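User: what does the whole thing look like in 3D?
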Amino acid sequence: MAEQQVAEGPKKPPAWLKTLTRPVELLGELSMFTGSSTAAIFTRPYRFGLLFGQLEFMAYGSMFVVGLTGLFTGMVLALQTVYAFGLFNAQSLVGATVELSLARELAPIFTCIVIVARVGSAVATELGTMRVTEQIDAIETMAVDPLNYLVVPRIVAAAIAAPILTMLFNAIALFGAYMIAVWAKDLSPGTFLNRIQALVQVKDLTSGLGKSVVIGFVVTVIACYRGYRAEGGARGVGIATTQAVVGGLIAIFFIDYIYTAVSLYGPQDSTGGLG
Amino acid sequence: MSESGGQQSTPSSQRPKTGGLNPAMIDVQNLYKSFNGFAVLKGINLKMPEGTTTVVLGGSGSGKTVLMKHIMGLFKPDQGQVIVDGQDVSTMARHELSVFRERMGMVFQSAALFDSMTVGDNVAFPLREHNKNLSEKDIAEKVKATLAVVDLHDVEKKFPAELSGGMRKRVGLARAIIRDPKIVLYDEPTTGLDPLTTESVDEMILNARERLHVTSVVISHDIGSAFHIADRIAVINEGRIVEEGTPQDVRKTQEPLTKQFLATWFGRA
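Assistant: Here's the predicted 3D structure for the full assembly of 544 residues, as structure tokens:
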């Protein structure tokens, strides 16, 4: 009988394992959710209407804040680089250094931070509210796969929006850096731009864009997972949103390190790797 | 019964009999379920005849919602079977469940309407998902007709937040029945409603059975409402069915827990 099984139950794990239990469970659940969601991407029906709706929200809706963040990042980076390179009379390298930093690191990372803040929180809140008000159960009872209907359009849109926003960030940040370096700090425009042409390669740009695709996808999966598994009413939705943002930020820096390490020192190419 | 979870439904003549009543549309057999070591269902056996309204009556935490979610295939049992329309729901794969659920409708306690959609879009949702051959004009007509079945008119363009609790329940029912399901499940349909709205929701459930000949399962702790709408009542307590029969049978029960539970209503009435 079930009651007897419950009473006997499996043996409890040792106390020192207790602290590891929840993180391991969480990783397992997240992996299964990611697997199911990724499989659902290739399952009919393909919901292009919902995808474009999410793209409008994620890409078009984030342009202003990404552009503004990019402008100030480029301007600050130019100020700091002009100052630092001025210490050993290497101002001619300012343009290339700024663009390398932007293309390989700052544009994808800052863009994904904006995505976590603006999109991740919204996704976790929306799905969390749908979960605690039984709207997700309702979708399921109407013979519609909630992963296909709710999660797939969001994660695919994020994977498409992230590189678009990264390119926008990159362009506006470079413009901001040019403004400060050339117009405020009297660097020669030719020197600023020529060194970029000479030292920045296409793979530096593609490396950053690839990074943004991976991170954009993962942080949105985390946000969907947190919202999808929310429980306990308004408080539960609040907790899910916080966990989505914190988890997304941790994921950004973790993936950034792994991707960069493989990209720079990976097995394919000792000088460029993935990039 | 289809152990493989296939999609062929068993003919009515082959379904389990329910003691002189219609064949059982839903047959719950020896159902056990625990969550985190806490036993919620402890061996439920229950048959719900075709074309009738069965009310599962019980207090908070008695396990009635968990039972309903097993019928819908939202939970997998630890032990036992749930046979619905000749198919074992507990062994179905995800895609099989999806096909199976097309024959069912569910009205949630909170109505669970999509708050980002209008009433018309909410009711049209199952049609747009599953009846791709229908034109928007056909869908609009069907939505209007189904809303009329639940006595709602000219509300298609409103959002759920603009409706009263009773109206939201009606929209929820319209959404559940728009594809002519064989079974409709109601989760606490009268909870939190005033007496007049409760009365109208009861009438809505009775009308749905009369007009659409559906098998209805109502999960409730509202004793007055249960005795108004039920053909059969099953009383659940601490994960076990303690009494089952027609409203008249249950009213005469000698089972102590059921007597105590019913006394909270009939004692005052």
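In plain terms: The mean pLDDT of chain B is 84. Residues 195-212 of chain B form the longest helix (18 residues).
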